[in-house]
Amino acid sequence: MTFSISQSLCVECGLCCGGMVFDDVELRDEHEALTVECLGLEVEEEDGAYFLIQPCRALKGTHCSVYEHRPECCRSFECLLLKDYQDEKISKVEALDLVQKVREKMEFSDKESVRCLIRKHFLGWTD
What we know:
Blueprint: H1 5-13, E1 24-26, H2 30-38, E2 43-46, E3 49-53, E4 59-60, E5 63-64, H3 72-76, H4 80-86, H5 92-108, H6 111-123
Antiparallel strand pairs: 1-3, 2-3, 4-5
């Protein structure tokens, strides 16, 4: 499988799929939920909405094992780091260095402080 330059950063990072950014992600509809479940991924339904539970079972290391069949929410998601890379504000080496620093922090810090750090710097969330 060949990846675009942007996709290559995503498959070398994988943080958004590991449960530190989101607890779950909303799927488009019941059909997409059934498709995702057939791929062996965990889906929950609440009030007619369907959610892909994180960490995602398809994440193998930093790679998505169902990349070509991933749901729309995964296809369309772009974190701030990816956007900065696409806008040439940061190089791939610098981006992956930041990812590595986050991974190191994950080893030595409590989950909630790392989650706040990721959400601030990768999503722009301030709370």
